[in-house]
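Re-run requested by the PI after the first attempt was lost when the workstation crashed. Everything re-entered from the original request form. Ligand of interest: nicotinamide-adenine-dinucleotide.
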Amino acid sequence: MSQHINVLDMAREQLAVAANLLELDKGLHDVLAQPMRQMIVHFPVVLDNGEVQVFEGYRVQHNASRGPTKGGIRYHPDVDLSETSALAMWMTWKCAVVNIPYGGAKGSVKVDTKQLTKRELEKLTRRYVTEISTMIGERSDIPAPDIGTNAQVMAWVMDTVSMQKGYTVPGCVTGKPIELGGSEGRTEATGRGVVVTMEEAAKVMNMDLGKAKVIVQGFGNVGSTAAKLAEESGATVVGVSDAVGGIYNPNGLPVHDLFYRYSGRDGGIREYKDAEQVTNAEILELPCDVLIPAAIAAQLTKENATKVKAKLIVEGANGPTTPEADHILSDKGVLVVPDILANAGGVVVSYFEWVQDLQNFFWEENEVNNKLTRIMRHSFAAVEAGMRAHKTDMRTAALIIGVKRVADATIRRGIFP
Ligand code: NAD
């Protein structure tokens, strides 16, 4: 679906709504609508069979007025410069909404990692990092995991930057393994933040999570953690899916069991027998109280938004809802907790990891989780208050906060020279 929808147009449309409400000066709006730097790289990798394959990758920095830029690296066959730029823009607003001192960035490589061996993946990562090395660094632009990348990939990023510098630079990337300066709680942070905002939203809506049914699209890092923690918070997870398709049982699914048996293997969850097999399109329209899209962009569109049964949508993925779908859902009275708030837990704990790396002083997991929960609750409350004050939807309220913080920083700094 995402191939047909230009997510950069979507991101710019969202910015325009906030810019109008904030009565931003046209020049300032123009600055914020463009990424400050975009790099396209083409680089060769020698495959295990001796053949050379050329890959295309990108690194985009959207805005650095509030600090170094920060954003994940995505490995997926459908990435392009435009999508990477949209994701970088969303990172800028996200860091500002939760008030951490970063601007937004994103990186990606057009690749289907399932076609590569581990050795090829390592070589691809090391060469991609070398190609974008003029942009990234612990004080300039700090990558993290996203779709198709994980802690091992981040370890290779860290090692490659360190080899080039001649000394170990743990703060140049986050989402690393614990033994290389990673933070406790980082792997689960995005899913944990999603569930904290789900709990806060449920309180506002007087929804009893103990009786709530939850569906999660995507069973990767974010989706599987969100499903597990939603179950721990008392809800019943009735549907989950991955790139191959989904499973649904209105009486509930054994999420922890599914995770330990099938996660990390696309199609694996469909081996579970005590559930109905459904497609990725169907799963979004099945009966539930809470829907957590945690896969890819542009999943809720004008075509399917009218058929969504959930009363609450918590966006684990980036950009899963198109602006047209937003209008339809808002008219139906569905509360959408937007990506730039709901999935900010990952970048919050990435920020904690970076701070710990720079200080060489590491925190215990409950300290990380407590600090994360406090920031997520506080940010949710601010956005919810903004929603009521401006009589608008939650995405616009979050954008107003995020865009205003970035605009204020830009004005304070002034336009150089
Ligand atoms: P991941 O690679 O660990 O998992 C992605 C999951 O989505 C997999 O289960 C995959 O099978 C599934 N998927 C892929 N294509 C699909 C499709 N067409 N339909 C349904 N499922 C599909 O990635 P992740 O890190 O969990 O990221 C998921 C989403 O969350 C992305 O939008 C990402 O940008 C966003 N996000 C991730 C983080 C993070 O910390 N990892 C932080 C913020 C936002």
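Saved to the shared folder this time. The radius of gyration is 20 Å.
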